[in-house]
């Protein structure tokens, strides 16, 4: 019995030692698992940061590529890839795949700008909503001390064709033109077109002509306006009815604006307008550039003195006026103080032009305002910090001497 008890005690002790050893191994394994989990978490976090950095880099590259393509009137439209990855396809599917590759795989001129599907009803509704917003507040006020001068905004004529639009007197703008797409996107989103905000800072009503059932001929040629001869006749036959074509007289700049700026041919960017402009300048009369004349004003003299003596001193509140002459060939630049009056501007212009101050009027095209009160300050007239003014001959006065 004593021997059996001793054997049992040895077995218990051996099992106890084995359990303690296994406990130590288990704790070591748990520590190892915790270490691996921490390392894996740090590695996954680092991998996530690397992926985010790579995504931001790729997004920036995509934006730069889209901006580069947009500079040349192009747009990336992509191509489907599910038809290329099919491996188990029959002979008919291979033929369809080859046909698809012939049709869509290679770039053709005009594929970069796909004519959008225009929802004419939604477009007309958006134009009506924009016009109603302006018509509700159609009478605006001009900040002059004599009181508010109401004026009515002239509606913007817009002709809506099946293949494009025409604003004002043209030119025709097809739907696939990027500028036209931006204009339509602004209207459909409920905003006044950004390209008209310089002329209509507070918006303007539209006068829409719904011609969606007509296709505007983009390559329209006007009939020959001269006289014609018939073979075998000795005299010139003149047309019995004279037709006037108001669009036949086109300025050089208007003609150049209808041409594309650049064309890509075989990977090379070709300038289109530059050589044609040089040719027109050599063979046709070109409009004379506007002559800018800086008028010496007290404010300009004081500003020069301030910059020379104390350039760190605060600049006073000034106004830069650009005044065009009656014929549009001269533009007078005047730097005035906000407390100067319209009479001061009139006297300076008369002195610079060597004419009588009573022979011309100063007016603003938008909003249409004639400044007749010489005691009116530029601040009160709304001509600060800058404004564009025009001159015209006073009614009943002799025109100024050249």
Q: What topology emerges from the helices and strands here?
A:
Elements: H1 2-71, H2 91-105, H3 120-136, E1 156-161, E2 164-167, E3 173-174, H4 178-188, E4 206-211, H5 252-257, E5 262-265, E6 268-271, H6 273-283, E7 291-294, H7 298-309, E8 318-324, E9 330-337, H8 342-353, E10 360-364, E11 369-371, E12 386-393
Parallel strand pairs: 1-4, 7-9, 8-12
Antiparallel strand pairs: 1-2, 2-3, 5-6, 8-9, 10-11, 10-12
Task: Report strand order across the widest sheet.
Answer: 7-9-8-12-10-11
Please estimate the helix content: 25-40%
Q: How many strands appear in the DSSP assignment?
A: 12
Helices, by number, come to 8
The rough form would be described as elongated
> How much of the polypeptide forms β-strand, as a percent range?
15-25%
The CA-CA distance between the termini, in Å, is 144 Å
The SSE order reads: HHHEEEHEHEEHEHEEHEEE
CATH architecture of the domain at 291-393: Roll
**What is the CATH superfamily label of the domain at 291-393?**
Phosphatidylinositol 3-kinase Catalytic Subunit, Chain A, domain 1
CATH class division of the domain at 291-393: Alpha Beta
Average residue pLDDT: 76
Q: Taking Cα atoms only, what radius of gyration do you get, to the nearest Å?
A: 38 Å
Low-confidence stretches: 83-87, 100-115, 138-150, 232-248
Biggest β-sheet: count, sense, barrel?
Answer: 6 strands, mixed
Oligomer state equals: single chain
CATH topology of the domain at 291-393: Ubiquitin-like (UB roll)
